[in-house]
């Protein structure tokens, strides 16, 4: 049986009249990359703060490898590495000093810590600038220092809150590769994101949270397959066509527009393609591109969060 | 990963937090220079052009310097850290809010002691006191801890910017000086003045410094020390409550 390294039972957190996290329960298997998805304001950051002992829940409990983080925060936190969403490093310190400071909080010292810090600086391609104050670094470099300082003690669980938000492509790629390496060494990763593609690429299991409640938890491919019936057809014409002109059709569940492309959600893509071809001939339009799309995790995300909104 | 005894990890957290604060916030040239120049300006403003016996004035002046030094930076650390986003990172380390509070207090206390030693050295060079060393040492340690705790308490309101905290800090700290026995000896105060002076923790360290340097005191020394201990615990207790209550504000 797979070992559960994080167990969450009936977790609730209220801020005045707002219930940010509403009686959620789930568990995370040891050694997985667990994605926590949700739109902005869904309760992702509050959940991560509850899981890492930064916030105290109003009710419920969080067990980190069997240790209740609220009853024994120091012991539980020794097992965690946390990379919060914003800032989070001392810009007056150098990259090396930041990593060493974090290592010291986790009980490391002396040559061992210096060796670890230099090795991380090398992995994160920061060794040449190790003695420069972090204030002179780019956002991507700061995020690398942030991650290095969160993993210096080789945590059993790494929490990442909106990991690559606002980073350039190179930094994103480097960080994702490092996360994969850390995971391969056995670290459990808990990742919150609103970037569906990121979760799709990295996660073994995904929970979708909406309005403080968990809508669904499953593997990304299972979630995608749940929506196998709902497929999408993407088309672009030589001129812009109003949604209303095409909407007069019971084949289409929903239309999304992205630039000059129209995305139609349907249960019968084959019939819809024929309809769109006929439509273009009738209106004397030229089809620039036409594609039948597989259901994506994004579709699952939208479906589940919308469903939750309706329920609420 | 090194899993230590929780108690030793707790103490380690306090020490590392204090070291971090000293390195980042206190060991900056402007802060150090301010710490030395401020007592000098205090001295000039209170002493020059007035007929004050410096032997009588110095213990109160020493207490005032200690008070300002120990409680000056503490109110700003938490707002600075929240603004920079480092406070949340700090909370994710194996520490509690209490660890951070005590680390902040220790850093302020050490800064107060260093500034106090410099001021005291100048005083002892120019004034002929028959010093009670133990009174000075224990009084300085305890009062510096107490004033630094007050500074950390002042950091706890949910102010959005450090400048708001500075205003609050001035509004609370200056009256504490005026109601203490620095400017007028307690025995010369009216009953209302006396009652007010007992509310200020500075009163008790002025009394201890008076005893340690001049050999005179208005309150029992035991009460002085007990009062400073009680004030310290009171400030720490309130800090704990308010820092926890306002934890998320400003993050």
Descriptive labels:
heterodimer; A: 312 residues; alpha/beta; Rossmann fold; Alpha-Beta Plaits; 2 domains; six-stranded mixed sheet; four-stranded antiparallel sheet; globular; B: 251 residues; mainly alpha; 0% strand
- Count of the separate structural domains of chain B: 1
CATH class of the largest domain in chain A: Alpha Beta
Tally the beta strands of chain A.
14
**Largest sheet of chain B, described in full?**
none
- Identify the CATH homologous superfamily of the largest domain in chain A: P-loop containing nucleotide triphosphate hydrolases
Question: Would you tell me the overall average pLDDT of chain A?
Answer: 85
Short recap of the structure:
The complex is a heterodimer of chains A (about 300) and B (about 250). Chain A is of the alpha/beta class. Chain A is built from eleven helices and 14 strands.
Topology:
The complex is a heterodimer of chains A (312) and B (251).
Chain A: E1 4-15, E2 18-29, E3 33-37, H1 44-51, E4 59-64, E5 67-68, H2 73-77, E6 80-83, H3 95-105, H4 110-123, H5 139-151, E7 157-161, H6 169-184, E8 188-193, H7 196-202, E9 205-210, E10 213-218, H8 220-226, E11 231-237, H9 243-247, E12 252-258, E13 261-266, H10 269-282, E14 287-293, H11 297-311
Parallel strand pairs in A: 3-8, 3-9, 6-7, 7-8
Antiparallel strand pairs in A: 1-2, 1-4, 4-5, 9-10, 11-13, 11-14, 12-13
Helix pairs in contact in A: 3-4, 3-5, 8-11
Chain B: H1 6-26, H2 29-47, H3 54-72, H4 74-84, H5 86-92, H6 97-126, H7 133-154, H8 162-178, H9 191-199, H10 201-214, H11 221-245
Helix pairs in contact in B: 1-6, 2-3, 3-6, 3-7, 3-10, 4-7, 4-8, 6-7, 6-11, 7-10, 7-11, 10-11
